[in-house]
Amino acid sequence: MCSVLFTACESGPKDDPNVKPEDNRFTEVTLAQGLDEPMEMTFLPGSKILIAERKGGLKLVNEETRETLDAGFISVNTKYTNKEGRTREAEEGLMGVIADPNFEENNWIYLYYADPDTPKHVLARYEFKDDYLVEDSKIVVLEVKTQREECCHTGGGMTWDTEGNLFLTVGNNTVNPRSGASNMNEAEGHKNEDDQRAPGNSNDLRGKILRITPQADGSYTIPEGNLFPEGTEKTRPEIYTMGHRNPWRVSYDTKTGYIYWGEVGPDANVDSIWGPKGYDEFNQAKKAGFFGWPYVIGNNFPYNRYNSEDGTYGEPFDPMNLKNNSVNNTGIVDLPEPVPAMLYYPYGPSQEFPLLGTSGRSATGGPVYRKADFKNAERPWPSYYEGKWLITDFMRGWIMAITMDENGDYESMEQVLPNNFYSGAIDMDFGPSGDMYVLEYGTAWFRGNPNSRLVKIEYNAGNRKPIVEAAVDKTSGQLPLKVNLSAEGTMDYDDYDQGNLNYSWIIKEGGVEKDRVSGEKVEYTFTDAGDYEVELEVTDSKGDMNSKTLNVFAGNSAPQLSITLDKPNKTFYFGEKQIGYSIAVTDSEDGSTENGAINADEVSTTFDFVPAGFDPIEMAANHATEDELASFSVGRQLIEGSDCISCHQFDSKSIGPSYAEVAERYPNTPKNRAYLIEKVINGGSGVWGEHGMSAHPDLSRADAARMVDFILNMNSTASRLPLSGSVNAAIPDYEESGSFVLRAAYKDRGASNVKPLLGEEMIVLRSPFLEPHSADFRKSTVVQTASRNAFYAIGDGSSIGFADIDLTGIKEIVLYVSTGGRAAVLGGTAELHFDDPDGAAIATSEKVGMAPDQGFRRPPAGMSFTEFRRQNAMKLNLSIPEGTEGKHSVYFKFKNPDAGESDFVFQIQEIEFRQ
């Protein structure tokens, strides 16, 4: 009987569509990591996943062999150059990839990319054979004319329907206005600031979702049911939906035929004279339609009309009678009735959809699960998720399951695996195995992130794989490099595996195994220089294995940076007009800025104002350009220290051409870069005259690449800050709040067999007024959306806390609260605690009771609502002990011994730190 019961237990739970499966039956399995800006994935036969990387690379992940291979490269554009000649990193590049539905017969894939030479985006078909791209097989299917003077938005998501029609998302390719709202500037010379010329234009492919039927000869036809029938004047028949700002990953429901996608919205944090604040959206199209941008957003909230001549705003648009009268419109004037968003959410709490949370936002999208799509799947997800739309957000890191009613309309949502976080989830889909795959871009824009990865989420109805955690105490250092490896936190949910897990650490270099050690915790010494992957494999008693990989750079220490400010407090901005700073860099191999071994040109320093709600991409583009130019200065040093300078000068002709002439002759493309690197190493003649170029066989390829990068980027420009000085810290007139970010970065010169490592330091000076919604720690609190997103502390001992707050110079903390009202808020006292919420109280406020309900009141003319609220709120004052300095975690505990577990003690509006 016991064996029968044991077998039944192993077989797992019954697949009941009404019972939510346990979270511990889902296991994350990392398939690849350390990718170079992954954008989109597609599934190929043989348990293979093809990934497009923004700079033009293709990676092929083989699940069976656990290998990640280079699978081809195409030249793409990755830069914007504005009218002033300033070049910076662009969102565009290789933006999308998808396999043909009949890939096993025809070996076709489709790539969507930015043409390297001409301002246009291209959808091209290629052959992909023997695990590699056949470059000369390219057939251009579709082209989208673009501008590449200003950021942003590309789209690039693709999916197929069951009839062989291809959907493609295309971004608006329009400037983000400083207001963070809709952009409708019709002034002469500003057409790139007018979204009426693209998303609102029926005769332009930008800001659309296209639907075409690709043909065998590389052409395409138009399926029935698109928004505008073929031959309709002033329209493009490829358009399925229009009125999009930045449609992202699109998916298709094989049962209903509906499509779904995420839509990235504008940055405004508050409603204002231009109209509503910014919202991201998750959208559904049951048929072809118009989705309102740039005239409405969210639940068809209208923007106000803009007068381009005097910069004033007028009446709001009528959502039921939208007309495109822009001078930049080449399409129809009378627009279809707009379809409201299914889900929409701002930076702050959403009154309609509170589970979506707060903070940065970038709606990605995700698939609708249909079990019938995976008839022979090894591990289909349970029937509980049948017909649900699974969505993710690039910045918030969650996965939500959206339940819809029989009409396909929104019904409810719930978080999937709430303890998991996905770092920059840029694509998500179900694969042929029935597993769900999440492609993570990683932490920072415009760089290959160590934490980028492809992970699959397996549903395990029987034996559950181990949950693996791996850590190393040092990721870089000089030889011999001794590190401590730990599997602490690794676990298995099956009782019979407790104490029966086997741990194996595999040391790899370039994917080749070099060594292997066993144990939950081990000490290991690297004696040879190299870039190593350290993979921890954990196997349970049933033979099921899961793994996690770390990177260790032996023979090169990561640089250390420090920023010193001439103001005492390093957390808050108190209205200083000028802020003095100095930056120091120390690197074990390269030296330091102090001794002059590292010079100012090698350090990337930027200073930005970040609005309270903001799109991080533009700031990241500035950082990426600065980092690039700083690293190029190392190439100049290498040139000056070599024999090259005897034949070539930087700006004037010598025996050979000047480097400026070389840069002019060879545009900065991957092909030209590779050619020049070979010339530097192997030499050559006959290109510039009769004088031959000397070979440099002893020069490492990495150093040759740095020299070439400097030459090819000689004409690049960016704002450059010195290692010390002062910055203007005035908040722009049109911004109510935000933060200043001072960042310094240095990429070292590498070492033998070890790639250069980037170090960075950042100081964020934020407003001294903190919102309770942004607290890092919460206990017994709730946000009630019915009353303007009110934040409540519930019961005696409820608390909130903020991590790493610099208290230097802070004399007092003031909590702006309210009591009484319809919620019957009781009042009480507030305690201040440092570093431990249950430690000794540093200060205690006076007790306040219930206040009489004054109802909703408007501020007098000329006073902002924020200032009016601060003047009329109750204030709980907490004094900081004299001499308190440095960073602390700061906790506020709310006390009322008479409060029940469900009683509201305080409504918390704001927390102010005062000097």
From TrEMBL:
Signal peptide start and end residues: none
Name of the protein described by the UniProt record: PKD domain-containing protein
Source organism per UniProt: Jiulongibacter sediminis
Gene3D superfamilies: Cytochrome c-like domain (1.10.760.10), Galactose-binding domain-like (2.60.120.260), Immunoglobulins (2.60.40.10), TolB, C-terminal domain (2.120.10.30)
Highest taxon listed in the record's lineage: Bacteria
PTM annotation, UniProt: Binds 1 heme c group covalently per subunit.
Residues passing through the membrane, by range: none
Residue ranges annotated for the PKD domain, each copy included: 466-552
